[in-house]
Amino acid sequence: MEYSFFLGCLIPSFQPYVESATRKVFGKLGIVIHDIEGASCCPPTDIPRIADELMWITLAARNLALVEKLGYDVFAVCSGCFETLMEAKKILKENKEVNEKVNQILSNYGLEYAGKVKVKNVLEVLYDDVGLKKLEETIVKPLTNIKICLQPGCKLRKFDELNLPEKLKKIAEVIGCQVIPYKSERICCGFPTSFLNLDFAYRERSKVKLDEIKSAGADCIVLVCPACLNQLEMAQLKLKDEGLIYDIPCINLLELIAIAQGFSATSIGSIYRRIRPTKLINKIEGKTHG
């Protein structure tokens, strides 16, 4: 299997451990990934699309055109990037007028979008293309003593037919994690509302989830959305200033898979983040101190 790897901007800028883990996991699975030279921000459907829809879809189409030049289907490890590329692809397929406008602009840069490649979420690649059985065969350190709460996020739920939240759960379980349900699992992390009111985002969205996750006794929050990861980390730091201590690490699913495959948290870079997962890593490694 070979894929184009769409990184987006949040992961290489703020969460390099996710990129590192993805490359290690895919390498272990024997999957070849191709970097997209010249790729830009997706861009997200929130502010850029509202500001200028033609600009938004042209930039998305440019990224897709670069993927087509490589000749491999593309996967995204960012839920926001996945949403953008999927929506842009749908519009360009269904709206001939927009397609022509976009390609006219792209022609100035020697590019053309023809709709030849598929856009996939990393969960689709792992669950549908690789399969749970093959993934399980690469696991050398099942995470059977780890309790987690999932944060699917709102972007994954937009594509009901793909059943991505359930695939997130099944993959977490196949690497050994004990998934703990909680009432606000379906609630947004608060990131989209932070553009309008940061205090509301932290208190009425993030805090609601963090309170329940802490009560559930989870060792960490597991997700695949870099915006959710950023929001739930920043919320913990903000609320800590007010005396509310959570200390719950937010871990991308790819990091846990890599650790279960035998890679160290240090080699992935997982230890370098706002909410240090020291207790989690010690628990995985069977350490009682330090």
Describe this structure in words.
- The chain is of the alpha/beta class.
- The model has no long low-confidence stretch (mean pLDDT 95).
- It is 52% helix and 10% strand.
- The longest helix is centred in the C-terminal third of the chain and has 19 residues, at 198-216.
- The strands form 2 sheets. A 4-stranded parallel beta sheet has the order 2-1-3-4, with helices on both faces. Strands 6-5-7-8 form a 4-stranded parallel beta sheet, sandwiched between helices.
- It has helices at residues 10-14, 16-28, 47-51, 53-70, 79-94, 96-107, 122-130, 132-137, 154-157, 164-174, 198-216, 226-240, 253-260, 265-268, 278-284; strands spanning 2-6, 32-35, 74-76, 119-121, 147-150, 178-179, 220-223, 250-252.
- Helix 4 packs across helix 5, helix 4 (53-70) crosses helix 6 and helix 11 (198-216) crosses helix 12 (226-240).
- The relative contact order is 0.14.
- Helix 12 (226-240) links the parallel strand 7 and strand 8 (250-252).
Overall strand count: 8
| Count of runs of 4 or more consecutive helical residues | 15
Mean pLDDT: 95
Strand content: 5-15%
**Considering DSSP H and I runs of 4 or more, what fraction of the residues is helical?**
40-55%
Radius of gyration: 19 Å
The coarse silhouette is globular
Distance between the termini: 41 Å
Spatial order of the strands forming the largest sheet? 2-1-3-4
**From the helix content, strand content and strand pairing, which structural class follows?**
alpha/beta
Task: Enumerate the spans where pLDDT stays under 50 for 5 or more consecutive residues.
Answer: none
